[in-house]
Amino acid sequence: MINIKSLSHLYEQGRRIKFPDWEIADMEQWLLLGSSGSGKSTLLNIISGLLKPTLGEVLINDTDLYQLTARNMDRFRGRHIGIIFQRPHLIRSLNVLDNLELAAVMAGLPIDGERNLLLLKELGIIELAKRYPDELSQGQLQRVSVARALVNKPDLLIADEPTSSLDDENAAQVIKMLTSQAKDNGAALIIATHDQRVRDHIAKTYLL
Ligand SMILES: Nc1ncnc2c1ncn2[C@@H]1O[C@H](COP(=O)(O)OP(=O)(O)OP(=O)(O)O)[C@@H](O)[C@H]1O
After folding, report:
1. How far, in Å, is the centroid of ligand 1 from the Cα of 185?
2. What CATH code is carried by the domain that includes residue 137?
3. Domain for residue 203, yes or no?
4. Does ligand 1 have an atom closer than 6 angstroms to the CB of 3?
C-alpha cells in the first residue's frame, strides 16, 4: 500500500538525507528506528503529505502523493492517513467528542456519531466524551489522539514518538492500543521511536 522510491530530502542549509526504499503492505506494522537527527520526523512528514521531498516518490495505494493538488492532498490525508503526534494537538475550545467530529468535517466526510462513541469506548475513555483537553492527563490525551486518528478509518496510522512522554504503564497501554486498533481497523501502522520499550512489540523494522 505504500511505496517509497529513491527518496531524499535536502533542507536549506542542511545535509541531504537519503531514505532507503520501503514497501509496506496492507495492515503491516513497522517500527521506524534511527538515532536523533537521522530523519525520522522528516520521513513521517513526507509520507503524511506535509513535506515535499527534494527527490523521489511516495505512492500510497498507487496514488503519487506529490502529484496531487494541495486541496486534493488535504482530502487524501484526511481520509487515508491518521497521525498521532508526540504531543497531542487537540483543539482546546472543543470537547473530546467535538474534536473527533472535527476530524471528519476537515476531511469532507459525514460525522459518524456512533463510530466516534464506539472508538472512545474501545479506548476506555467514553467517560471523557464531554471533557475538554485541558482537563485530561497526558495518557488520556494520547488515547483521545489515537481515537481522533482513527475517526476516518484510515488505511495508514502514523505515530511519531507516541510514548516518549508517558510512564511505563501508560506507554505499554498506548502500544497495545495502537497495534490492536490498527489491526481491528484494517490499517497499516508505522511507529517512529527510540523508546526501547516499544521494540519488543513490533517485528518489522525500517532503520535510518
Ligand atoms: N526545518 C528544518 N530546516 C533545516 N534542517 C532541518 C529541519 N528539520 C530538520 N532538520 C534537520 O534534518 C535532520 C533530520 O531531522 P529529523 O527531525 O527528521 O530527525 P529525527 O530522526 O526525527 O530526530 P529526533 O529523533 O531527534 O526527533 C537533522 O539534522 C535536523 O537538524
Report:
1. 31
2. 3.40.50.300
3. yes
4. no
112 pLDDT band, cuts 50/70/90, is very high
pTM for the structure as a whole: 0.89
Q: Is 34 in the pocket of ligand 1 (CB under 6 A)?
A: yes
Indicate if ligand 1 lies below 6 Å from the C-beta of 41: yes
Distance, in Å, from the CA atom of 139 to the CA atom of 156, rounded to the nearest integer, reads: 22
For cell 509520507, the residue is: 47
Span 134-154, pLDDT tens digits: 999 988 998 899 899 999 989
Q: What is the DSSP secondary-structure string of 57-117?
A: EEEETTEEGGGS-HHHHHHHHHHHEEEE-SS----TTS-HHHHHHHHHHHTT----HHHHH
Tell me the pLDDT tens digit for each residue of 91-100.
999 999 999 9
In a domain, residue 5? The reply is no
Question: How far, in Å, is the centroid of ligand 1 from the Cα of 160?
Answer: 13
**Domain count across the chain:** 1
pLDDT of residue 138: 84
**Residue 154 structural domain:** 26-53+63-207
